[in-house]
Amino acid sequence: EAQVTQNPRYLITVTGKKLTVTCSQNMNHEYMSWYRQDPGLGLRQIYYSMNVEVTDKGDVPEGYKVSRKEKRNFPLILESPSPNQTSLYFCASSLSAGGEQYFGPGTRLTVT
Amino acid sequence: AQSVTQPDIHITVSEGASLELRCNYSYGATPYLFWYVQSPGQGLQLLLKYFSGDTLVQGIKGFEAEFKRSQSSFNLRKPSVHWSDAAEYFCAVILDSGYSTLTFGKGTMLLVSP
Q1: What is the widest separation between alpha-carbon atoms in chain B?
Q2: CA geometry: angle at B64 spanning B58 and B65, to 5°?
Q3: How far is A35 from B102, CA to CA, in rounded Å?
Q4: pLDDT by residue (tens digit) across B71-96?
Q5: Helix or strand (DSSP H, E) at A112
Q6: Is it the case that residue A33 has pLDDT exceeding 80?
Q7: Where are the alpha helices (DSSP H) in chain B?
Q8: Residues A45, B98: C-beta atoms closer than 8 Å
């Protein structure tokens, strides 16, 4: 089944403790993105990747890192999480530039 | 910078009534346009998209949207709403065929009354 998977689905952590949210897609898509969703703000793009080893900042990249060492994986790294990074995070992938994005199920992160 | 406006935060529609959700974008060129739906606790699902050609596009679940260049709008419509349509709807745009930032509107929450 074609899908985007994220892990973990739920995470509660403390300020400053490094964490990684994994994202994997099995559709051989070149393009992958990370978004955060906050009430009243919709979805905002954090980072995106056009291919292996090619990444770029989205609208809200501060406090986040990404890597794209393999085509299928696009982990989101929070080196020193802070409470304002409490949010719902979505990973997405697409086959072509401007094409339909397939979203993962989301990761709800709480930073205390 | 491109932006997407969904002027209605909440809309309540009676079951069986028609629906129109508004979306306006701000950009000089015609971007690629999308409507996504998010049911409670779920991820996002694509309803329909517009790249070029016929300005009236059909999507899944009986939805359609009309692109109006003169109004920079891409409104979503459904002739008869079902209770299962209650969800949050997002309009999104992407600048061009070269992958760049996908910009979402802030969403419209649709409530369906009996």
Answers
A1: 45
A2: 110
A3: 10
A4: 999 999 999 999 999 999 999 988 76
A5: none
A6: yes
A7: none
A8: no
Gap from A49 CA to chain B (nearest CA, Å) = 9
- For residue B9, what is the DSSP state? S
- Which residues are bridge partners to B48 per DSSP? B35
In one-letter notation, the amino acid at residue B72 is S
Which residues does residue B39 pair with via DSSP β-bridges, in sequence order? none
Strand order in the sheet with A76-78: A4-7, A19-25, A76-78, A65-66
* Residue indicated by tokens 């501060």: A62
In angstroms, the CA B86 to CA B71 distance is 27
The neighbouring-strand residues paired with A45 are A35
Omega prior to A81 cis, within 30 of 0: no
Please identify every stretch of chain B with a pLDDT value under 70, giving residue numbers as ranges: 1, 28, 96-100
* A59 touching chain B per CB within 8 A: yes
Long-range contact list for A62-67, CB < 8 A, 24+ apart?
A64/A34, A66/A34
pLDDT of residue A65: 98
